Records
---
Amino acid sequence: MTDAIVERPIVPTEHRPDRAAHEVGHKVAPLLLTEQSHFCPGCGEPIAARTILENLVELGVAGQSVAVLGIGCYTAMASSFDIDTVQALHGRAPSVATGVKRMKPDSIVFTLQGDGDMVNEGLQEVLHTAARGESVTAILLNNGVFGETGGHMTATSVLGQRTKNTIDGRDAEYHGYPIRIADLIAQLDGVAYVARGSVHSPGAIAKTKKMVHKALQMQVERKGFSFVEILTMCPTGWFIPTIEGPQYMDDTLGQVHTMGELEVRG
Amino acid sequence: MTRRLMEGSEAIVEAAIAAGCRFFTGYPMTPFTEVLEHFSKRLPEVGGVCINAESELEAIGMTWGAAATGARAATGSVGQGLSLMQESIAEMALARVPIVVFNMSRGQSDYFQATRGGGHGDYRTIVLAPMDVSEAVELTQLAFHLADRWRNPVLVYGDFLIAHTSEAIDVQPIDFGPLPDKDWGIDGSTSGTGRSRMITSIGIGKAHSPTSGIIGHFEGIAPHLAAMQAAEARVETGFVDDADHIVVAFGTAGKFVRYVVGKMRADGVRVGYVRPITLWPFPEDAVARASEGKRAVMVFENSAGQLIDDVKISVLGRAPVIPIGGISTDASGFGVGDMYDAEVIRGRIEAVLAGQEVTS
């Protein structure tokens, strides 16, 4: 098993793509205990995680950070993050994060959930936590599919999307419509910051990193609930060649779950 | 000593605060609601936090997070609300997160839920069943101690009468002895040091200190459960040694039986009682010893028959086990019915003594 793991270089997000290309193989994200992982080739989740790790260090809050992880492929990051971690149940990370933050108000608490975890299983949790204005930062890794089970429809799968249980594509009449979760959360009074980013291109990664920065900054300033949805590639769960992941995302999920800031409270 | 008349709900909250509980969250439901009310008033006064949870699912999740920091944290409901919490209670037992859960139940029909659990996996929760408000004050404090001692959820099984009966109470902190440091508590302070910590129900280890993984995690459960089982069974017995008949009952029912057996003894009837104080671990040895050579072991419980399973497992055929309880409730379904009456209970015991069949 271990022999199959390839250590993959990390591309820093702060540089333009051409310059970043020269850096390949020279830098790794901070707060990582290991560069080994079991993520599929082309997965967007480690890139999204990097935007968080780099921001924790750059904001100077790494030494007070707490991660609350839901259940999905990304749960495996628990072992590689050098961050105090609570592994929560599927869907329940926002409530667990609430308990941590209320007892340790000086900690910087962030959650990692997938779309299946947050928008399917635990939809009420994130909405209530946002409305309560809990001073935590929720990060959604949205790939529009249950990646860990092997590619099944979630509440954010877009119309027409082929999954193992929408084999002819998601049909609105039969399967209903995708939920734009960031748009829902942005309507709530308790939120300080809501944005939707993506990791399908170097430019999108750089923008997303700034969004995560703002979200964490809101928590540092105790302005309320902050939320960043990050669209991540899942070529395995989309049943497409790895190299087509970014383009597929741009053409499908990215057209429904559009990038941008939805709420910024001063 | 200053005793003050207070209802059970308030006394339980005062006991929890005396035990150092600083986090509570819950969702209103009769007869648990007043526990939430008192916590919401009192915790902010002592620097704690009480959150009005939007659901029981979220209440148990918030309690998980608070307890993961090492704080003494609790939640509660009635059996119906606890049904919603079962997944998290099971996983918290597997993640070794110590919390206290109050069940201000509607009768005694949550015995199976309390002692078997409705969650998944190999887990147990210690269950303390007070018979009245005074004992609830003691057992509430013990619950927090045992939760920390074993890093395991602990249930306090109350009911409508315990929640709403007023007694003159003086709540004083009880010292149950030293406990291990909570060096596992999560607060962010070890992040970035190469010694960061993890609380997990599935045995994930940090890369800096690899664990034996899910196999080792699950294999560690059985010895943990066995150690709790061997150490924590609690029971009260009365008039057992020279009795011909024994009555087993817990909680409010146990308090009634205790009174009735005392009266019958005064009248020269050779009957005794066994009152389990912990429902898990069940005091199997005490019930087995008490049943030795007896003509019958009666079980008085306010349910269709749940406690009786554990009694039968303990008695193991040493004596006939006869149910004398039944479902007895009020029109609202809160589990306070006509059966909670000393004369009714005496009549049922006497019917067994006379060789008659008891119909509830």
---
Amino acid sequence: MNAMTTGFPILTLLTVLPLIGAVIALFAGRHARAVAIITALVCLIVSLIIWTRLPADGSIGLVELHNWAPSLGVEYHLGVDGLGALMLVLSAIVTLMSIDAAHRVHHMPGLFFGLVLMLEAGLFGSFTALNFFHWFLFWELSLIPAFFLIKLWGGPRRGPAATQFLVYTMAGSVALLVSFLAVFLSTGGANAPGTMDFVELAQLASSGVLTQMVTAHLGAVMPWLAIGVLAGFAVKVPLMPFHTWLPAAYAEAPSPVTMLLTGAMSKMGVYGLLRIAIPVFGVQIAAMRTPLLVLAVITVVMGAWAAAAQKDLKRVFAYSSVNHLGYCLLAIFALAVPAPGAAAQASQAAALNGVILQMFNHGLTAATIFWFMAIIQMRSGGLRGIDDFGGLRKPAPILAGLMGIALFSSLGLPGLNSFVSEFLIFRGVFPLSWVAATISVLGLLITAAVLLTVIQKVFNGPVPEHWAKFPDLHHAEWMALAPVIILMFLVGLVPQVILGNINPTAVHLLAHWRF
Amino acid sequence: MNYINLFRSTLPETALEIAALLVLFVDLGFLRKAARATRIAVAAVLGIAGCLAALWAVSIAGPFSAGNDLLLSAGGSAGVAQVAVLALTALTLLLLIDSDFTRNPGEYVAVVLMAAAGGLLISAAQDLLVIFAGLELLSLSLYILTAFAKQSGKSAESAIKYYVFGAMSAAFLLFGFSYLYGLTGSTNLHEIALAAAVGRAASATPLLYIALVMVAVGLGFKVAAVPFHLWAPDTYEGAPAPAAAFIASVSKVASFALLVGIGTAFFHVFDNLHRGVLFVRFGFPTRYLGLLAPWELILTVLAVASMIFGNLAALAQSSVRRLLAYSAIAHAGYILLGLAFFSWTNVSAQAVLYYIVTHGLTTIGAFGVVGVVERAVGSDRLEAFLGLQKRNPLLAAVMLVLFLSLAGIPPLVGFWAKFNLFAAVLRTSGGALPFTLVALAVLFSAVSLYYYLQVLKRVYVMPATDESPITARPVTVAVLVLITAAVVVLGCFPALLQSWIASFYPHP
Amino acid sequence: MLAWAIYISFAGALVSVLLPKDKPALARRWALAVAVAGLVIAIAGYAGGFGQGREVIVDALWVPSMGIHYMLAADGISRVLVLLTGIASVAGVLFSWNVELRTNQFFALYLALIGGVYGVFLSFDFFLLFFFYEIAIVPKYFLISIWGSTRREYGAMKLALYSFVGSAMVLIGLLAAYATAGSHSTALIDLAHAGLPVSFQMWCFPLVFVGFAILAGMWPFHTWAPTGHVAAPTAASMLLAGVVMKLGAYGCLRVAMGLFPHGLDPWGFSFIGIGSWRDVFAWLAVIGIVYGALVALAQTDFKFVIGYSSVSHMGFVLLGLMTLNQIGLDGAVLQMFSHGVIAGLLFAIVGRIVYDRTHTRQFAELETMHLSRRLPFAAWAFVVAGIASMGLPGFSGFVAELQVLVGSWRANPWWTVVAGVGIIVGVAYIWRALQKAFFTDALPTPHELESEEEHKFAPICWSEMAGVALLLASTLVVGIYPRILLDQIEPAVKALLAGGMQ
């Protein structure tokens, strides 16, 4: 157990802030959005402060540790490393973007922004928790606002979409819960409670004791527990074939909510894999590496392929999200090799850096693209078919330009953010599993083709009569968008701003993982 | 034979008889022209005065023996029962003040006082002849009381039924007594018990059984135990309310007191001889213990039958009086259980006395309410009680307390009575049988809640069809409130009554 | 001091009867004042009880001839349940603010019931406990049959008879224990130390346990619970689920298990894997958990869903009791509190906030009403309460049910597995109810909008908000900081376990 560095509880503060904001927003009526923006801004600042206060060696810092339910052996244990802190920053940015994008919510705005802020609190909580209990609390806490945001403000078929989203994720949660309960019960003695502390579990797992304990209590179920945990996260990311909830949910959710779903919530799954699944079930995952890699490759390729087949822009981007997160999964499963040599270790480090950076980049880029979707839909009266538009470049040059940048970022154009992370991922995965990497390149190509088709069909070509007066971005809009675009360039050109903090964490994590 | 002693012993009865004559004298001699209300009031007050005088007399009365044979006991169960009989009689007389079913209050009160005298006699009687005489005095008076509402056909009908059954049971009783005498050569209870245990009757088992069964028929009739209960519902339904209250309380108390006396005599036969010594000396087969085994068996059968049948039949009643009759049968079943598993110590006797006294009290109150409602509505059907809480909240509250007490809900006295009684049964003898029987009794008292709630549901829950207020007259209200208060207070402080009963017994 | 909660409630009931009939507002305020006073006493007693162990409040010889003591005392378990009673009673009054029919009688019965409940939780004499236990039965009957709804007379009578049969079984056990012990005392401690023979405990334990468990809604004796809950007026169903069912569970723990610990010993043979009463009751509890949840899933009446969910949640309490280990029993006691608060809240929302406005509880009709829009407060309160009921972390139910599951895992993993299925179904039925009652997808037709305009629902009044806030705060506080209760429950359970149970 780490030393009790219980200074100022900044992580708790970060989690509580949006909750307070949510309560205020609930009763703020039409001022709710202002409340939400202020809250989100403050959260962003706090998360940036956290980002600057990380331990240099990549270990977990800013720890808060309190006894919570002694009879259960549960502690309130918080802490972040580079991975967690980056996710905090990402969540703060995406939430701010989402709130900014949601300025047309007239129906129960207090509730809307209250739920968004609750969702943010759930994100913060789950990215800082180091004990399964409250991690799970926040994991669920983020799910419920998301459900209602889709259910109450979504498109025409929001009901089934919301339910599907909920049922899938709940089923995943149950699998997670059952697995962890089994671990918890196995680690407990006759009178001593078990543990669900991620750090302790990781230590037990890396020394091999955990498998012995579980086997002694329950028999050889460890692989099944690993599958349960993987399933829980796979639904959230998603990994094919657990993705079927996603297109409907992303498409039916209002665009600001889709931004949150894809920008931040999907990261909870990847984060869970890195923070929980790999450290605790590394050995079992390594044993299942090949089938998992197959699934990841399928996710990458089929995600891109499915995106190509869509007519609805939101669905196009939904599937392309699946494709992009597929890279993360690919890298995570690829680096699960037992006893790597020195070269393999370097590849692992590259892949892990790539994964973490890709999480950030995808969050940023996908959220931006859906933001543009919100802007377009607002102007088109809800139309969003890929064939509904044409030549928008002419009436709306700024819109076309900025969205073009976002799309190019998404397809991995060098100089923009995603290029760095996807490059790192492929750099790491090729030596570890060249087959998987080679097939996955196909995904890159298809995605590029899809996105270029989108640019072609929406922004180029002749302008239909009714779009001749398609309004361009006004000041407020592009001023809000500009920082994000700048950030894309910044990360693309100077990735060191992020990698500087990520790399120690990646090294630290890899040093403690055991496959 | 010492007549001074006899006079002293029977002073309470004498006081009652004098009061009865006085009532007749005053009523017929001076008040023939007076208003009926005045006549009733005067008669009742005189009767109550007689009761009070008798109460005083009870405190100075002593036991009476003829030669070596005890005829009338004093103190113990006799003392408790006599006080209870007199107090309850006074209460029923108070209820009379507000009723108007008769034009001959003097006769009514006189008969009541004579019945009470019979009750006093059997409470204390230790001799078969005295028992029979007392019982007949009581029974004959009750037949008359039942028929006292002369305008009512039901009253006459029920009196006839009561009389026919009563006469027959008296015949059975006498028949049984004659066998007992023939077998044991004595009419004294203690002598009979001793003879049956160690004397010449000890080998005459089948005859003894027959004799005891006959006695049980006679006494079972008095306490309305199944299967000798048939008169009870009709009588409760047909008799005028104060008479019914008297039958349900005073007569029951006296009859059970008689059973307690008999039980005490039978069970305490070995008081002076150590039980074990007796076994060794006479080598009795263990299954045969004088009168105990057959008597226990008979009472047990009666108890079980009464509990089951009384409770089940009560479920189907639509007349509150009949319901009360069947519930009284069920209660008789519980009490008989306590008598069947009688203790060598005074525990059982005291528990039974506690039960009958409180049950008598509660029943008088219940009949008081029924009487008021009946007079206002003209019926004692369940429907007559619809919306009583609106028509007269006080009566409704009284009803609530009394019925819940009958059902055995704490903190009311009925609960204590049951608890006390069942605890006494279990403390008396271990083993599966008493336990099973107590379990049965407790479960059936759970069943009984259903029919008590049927009445209370009409009172409190269901909407009234007629919302005109019902007024009760002040004396009745006072009596009812007094009884209700007693039920609650004795329920909260059960030790009061217990220690009072215990005070009649010599301290060990 | 805690004893005053009993006296105040009974005195309050008495005064309430005597209040003028035509001034419902007065009766209401009086009842609220009494309930709040009870809560204040409960809180003060609870706060003063940290680290105290068992405190004897009163010990007087009540019926000397039978050795019956008037003995009131409190240990951690009692204090937690007294606290629950205080909270539930205040909330119940708040949710009964709109009772206009015979208001003074309503609150009189209500307060009498509360007084009886306080009494049970504080009694340390078997007889006294039984005494208060029975006192609680009668007010229930009248509360339901007079102020109830759907089939109220049937529901009330069924409940009264079930309770009375249960208490008859307890009474038999009480009499038998008293007679067998021969210690001439009915104080629980004396009876526990009387050294009752194992063979006696073997048959007396199931008798008393079942007697109490009937009131705790143990399958298959649970059938009074859904009908009773549904028929009852809101406050009564809150109390029924909130505290009265706890009476049963408390009796199981304090009396049945405390006096007859050897009743849980193995029989010495086993039949289809069941070798002791412990196995029998644990499986019944587990069946109750799953059965209640499954039946709740199939209901068309909103309140029945909650009624059956109570059966399911009370199964956790009974299962926790049967684990016979520290963590499971901790969980059971905590679950008593948790379910008391959460079920109270659910009943309040369904019975008071929704039903009193819509006058229907059928999902088919509620679906057409678009309640999430017209009664957003109810909808969101139900969302939170439902989440709490599902046992999601952050609410009291999670800690409680988890502890029960962990405890039962140590006793018999299969119990945990089957009970876990119940939890999953629990999520499903709450979600189904939520969707059907509040969040339907169908958009209102113009005609419906018109009629909505005409029949506006009465606005949510302060008493409802206060009640919801009180109950929600309770479950949240315990969920976020369970030690607030566990610190008192644990030593008490430890003492109980050390005092005889395996």
